[in-house]
Amino acid sequence: MGLPGALPVVNSKVVEFAVKLGLALNCKLSFYSKFDRKQYFYPDLPKGYQISQFDIPIATGGYLDVDLPVEFGGGHRRFGITRVHMEEDAGKLLHADDGEYSQEITFPIMLHWFSALLTLLYALQVDLNRAGVPLLEIVSEPDMRTGIEAAEYAAELQRLVRYLGVSNGNMQEGSLRCDVNVSIRPVGQSKFGTKVEIKNLNSFSSINRAIDFEIARQALLYSQGKADQIVQETRLWEEGSQKTVTMRKKEGLADYRYFPEPDLPEVILNKEYVDSIQSSLPELPEMKRRRYEEMGLSMQDVLFLANDINVARFFDATIEKGADVKLAANWIMGDIAAYMKNEKLTINEIKLSAAELAELIASIKGATISGKIGKEILFELMAKGGTVKGIIIEKDLIVDPSEIEKMVDKVLSENPKQLEQYRGGKTKLQGNENIERQGKSRAAEQDPFREIKCEKLNVLLPPADMEAGTPQSRKVMVIADPTRESAGALQYALSHVLLEEDELVLLHVDTPNSWKNPFITFLRKPSNSQYTTPASLSSSSEGAAAPGGEDFLEEMKQACEVAKPKLRVHVEKVHTESGNKAAIILSQSTAHGVDLLIIGQRRSLSNAILGYRRAGGSLRGSKGVDTAEYLIQNSKCNCVGVQRKGQNAGYLLNTKTYRNFWLLA
Amino acid sequence: MLSTLHHPPRRLSRFFPANNKPRHFHTKPVLSSSQPVTDQSPSSTSPPESQILSIRHSLLSREVTATQLAETYLSRLKLAEPQLKSFIHVSNNVLKEAQSIDDKIKRNENVGPLAGVLVGVKDNICTVDMPSTAGSRVLENYRPPFDATAVKKVKEFDGIVVGKTNLDEFGMGSTTESSSFQVTANPWDISRVPGGSSGGSAAAVSARQCVVSLGSDTGGSVRQPASFCGVVGLKPTYGRVSRYGLIAYASSLDVIGCFGSSVADTGILLSAISGHDRLDATSSKQVRVLQISVSQEVPDFTSQLISAALLESKPLKGLKVGVIRETLENGVDSGVKSTVLGAVSHLEELGCTLSEVSLPSFSLGLPAYYILASSESSSNLSRYDGVRYGNQAAAEDLNALYGDSRAKGFGSEVKMRILMGTYALSAGYYDAYYKRAQQVRTLIQKSFKTALDENDILISPAAPSAAYKIGEKKNDPLAMYSGDIMTVNVNLAGLPALVLPCGFVEGGPIGLPVGLQMIGAAFDEGKLLKVGHIFEQTLQGCRFVPPLIADGIPQ
């Protein structure tokens, strides 16, 4: 409120948090720092100045390590931190739409303030509840080159503050806010171009999209010879239109008339204080990721587990109890994560304890119970709590392995046809399911059953390549169609995802109507001429012109061989009359045990970048979008929707967690 | 070095009109900290005694009730007010509060050390049940939702806030003429200014409209009016008293100070309001442990005061007193100079060892002060936008609302300082003005430190002249600013200083009082009060009761 005679007092917690954050960001701490007043006149600032730190911030010169998600090309980045400083928050201006006021007056003392403004300004309110609340500002070096990098940097900061317990980092509530500065420069130029500030970024995805929009906007002006129209200004990100618009132009540098804050003493740290905070720092996300990586987990697993400190703690506690690392990760990332998502619970809210999960994993591994029963027990534990042993006894779930063996023998002898197929190398054929289905007895659901069954099958007829592969290799499935989107998806997979030791499945689902819809005519358009590299890919799409022709699959396979000679590529064709392509792909991806599913996604550049509202089904070819969207949402493994943007403009990616990430080529 | 100080002229008696010729009393009433004094035979020329202690004694011995006392003061207040205009607001609750003290006494309950003591509070110090305007239209009728810490403590000790005293708008001025509401007169000569900015508080104590009062001192706003009005004024060490609730002028210089008609009263009031406050981050936790005071607590300054009866021939033997040479050079009124030199020789008689001290950076203090104070005030006053509190101009849009509310709300002196301060802080000028002023401030702090390492206290006049005529310097701000030369350095250094009347110069109906400034080391108020008390109790031939109320005042 800035009442006459009122004085500020430093909250000692904010100093502690600033030191914590400074240390966690590898900064140099100022053992002597001070507060300054930053003067400007604005309705959100009741005192007419903001208490901040100007020339001696509490921490300077650090860095933050970030692992980019696999689907965006992966990789490790280090972003420089310029400074961390303490300041007070300003009030919140509430711009009401259509002259309506939001009725969020919660603080009686503020009524006077509101009523004064209401009579004057018919679309503006100020919520002063957060005015004067301490905050920490972190300024980074201009080290990010794409929206994704910036968004991932911000996400890592969020993880960090959550790990440190400094903030809940919630962007929606404004506990974590982000302004970005974007400038472009020609390749080879070392001086940065004119920077443009963007405000109103309420999510990581809007950070990403706003930056990429702004890069595109500036690049367009640049290429049109209108570089002088890039001016130093503050722009606002409009979520509705997916655009940045001018908020205010800065005429030269604002004069904030900084001077030392006389109402607050200097902040003096001593070594003991800093040391005690240093020694109390928890394991930070970066340290956790490196540790998980050393355990042999894939980067995908590492990123998932380390993302949420509570999940990471749960995982750590589980393996501390002796659980197998990979199995624990799979359980947590699979059924437990799905349950948490469905029930909208956090890992701390579910009733399952880490010790019981470890017990469960041990019970399955030790063949006391089957995986399927284990799953049942898991859901019981998550919903109601209890112990694994308790539930096993209560439900009488242990069976005699010799009983099962007899049963398997019986089933095998009753199904000679499937046995024959299995002998032919179809290890994943539906027959297995049939066998299981036929043994519908209680015992048949037990995992020992499967093990005994497999054992028998293997002894009798060892198939060629059953469950082969090194632990580190991944199985990636690309949905192959004779379309530009599909070619783009494959190109992305080859350039950004696949490693030599990985395995690629090219799945083509042949649906009768898919060949009669506008896709075909689209393919014949001259726009195809833009496919120039790699040559094999362009020819593959040309070759697909004939309806029903499946030469493109061979072309695609060849393209893979050219790009990654050692890559193992399988081509899988499935024909369906039902037309439910998505369901087929889902079941195929599950059957193949695919780690990552990649599908071409159709949406034009103009839609994504120039801000047309997504109009759902009204888009031409929305069916293609729908399949990809459906898979992204429902696939058990990670699914990436890929859209190639022009020749060298990279890809626009969609996953369950990220929308419209523009991966630059 | 001492040659300049030898045998200063002491021809003070010529300033005294015949009808008020002082008589000398060598035996003084007993003043003791542990036991209230009984003043059996008040004399018009006896040295000032503690009103607070005598009130306490009268109340506890049931000689008089708090209500009777309050009525006496209120009637005198009302009588003098039309001429003096020292109060902006007088409390309606004085008698009610006095009654509750009487009730407590009747029930034999303990009463606080300020029980029944009427305290005037400068109007830039927030009081919850009274307006607090800082003398500005922009805060006209503003009633704060909280008491300043100093006021809260006064109330906790059963003091009665009698009203809010007049001041220069936001404390910016040295005459109390720049108050938006009224011009206060000097009780010694109502055609003269009472000094400022705490002119109302000084005049009220001088005219016995209240017992003691709170003021604020940013560049001399307690000490200069104390000097002009012939009362004791104390500017404590920066950080000794919480500034919470003091409407800020220049935060790094502002302190709340005390006025009293005796050193003892001033010390008792300081004891009551001092101490660390968690609401003021700049209030000090430091306690300078004094010989008698209890550690861990703010020293009881009055315990330092030695009864006048115990005065030996040389009660201040060995005390090293430095006379600041620069304060007795050109620009100081000759009458003031000779009166102060008289006080110097009085100190020598008391046993002090005198020496001359030079503070070469002294003259730099004035420009440095005006740059720093203006800079901070330009920032501190930016909150008065007419939106959340205070007077609001009717306007079409927000910017006009801001502009008009400030244009109509602030007086010209305030506007001038905001402009000066904004200019000094602007990009491109900061280094030349604000930064250099800060460097000067550091120099001044160092030179005071050196001087106080060698001396126990430093002395100077409190102002280069006695009270001047109302309107005399109104159109010459530089002349008014230069009147602060004696005091601003002390604020820049953050040191405590005591001003007490030491004599008279010619002027007004019966002469005008002159104040002596004693400057001590940081948190050494105890020593200042002790020296001041002995000085006051042994100063002969002076009675600092203004002619306005000279007749019929109960001592």
Which key phrases capture this entry?
heterodimer, A: 665 residues, alpha+beta, seven-stranded mixed β-sheet, globular, B: 555 residues, alpha/beta, Amidase signature (AS) enzymes, eleven-stranded mixed β-sheet, 15 helices, 11 strands, 34% helix
Topology:
The complex is a heterodimer of chains A (665) and B (555).
Chain A: H1 12-24, E1 28-29, E2 32-33, E3 36-39, E4 49-52, E5 59-67, E6 76-88, E7 92-95, H2 111-120, E8 124-127, E9 134-140, H3 147-164, E10 178-182, E11 196-201, H4 204-223, E12 233-238, E13 243-249, E14 259-260, E15 267-268, H5 271-280, H6 285-294, H7 299-307, H8 309-320, H9 325-343, H10 354-365, H11 371-384, H12 388-395, H13 401-414, H14 416-423, H15 430-438, H16 447-460, E16 475-479, H17 484-497, E17 503-510, H18 519-523, H19 535-543, H20 551-563, E18 568-575, H21 581-591, E19 596-600, H22 605-609, H23 622-634, E20 638-644, E21 651-654, E22 661-663
Parallel strand pairs in A: 11-12, 16-17, 16-19, 17-18, 19-20
Antiparallel strand pairs in A: 1-5, 2-15, 3-4, 3-14, 5-6, 6-9, 7-8, 10-11, 12-13, 20-21, 21-22
Helix pairs in contact in A: 3-4, 6-7, 8-9, 8-10, 10-11, 13-16, 19-20, 21-23
Chain B: H1 51-60, H2 66-84, E1 87-90, H3 94-106, E2 118-122, H4 149-156, E3 160-165, H5 199-206, E4 212-217, H6 223-229, E5 232-235, E6 255-260, H7 263-273, E7 320-324, H8 334-349, E8 353-357, H9 365-380, H10 398-409, H11 412-425, H12 431-454, E9 457-461, H13 477-482, H14 485-493, E10 497-505, E11 512-519, H15 525-538
Parallel strand pairs in B: 2-3, 2-4, 7-8, 7-9
Antiparallel strand pairs in B: 1-3, 4-6, 5-6, 5-10, 9-11, 10-11
Helix pairs in contact in B: 2-3, 5-6, 7-15, 9-11, 9-12
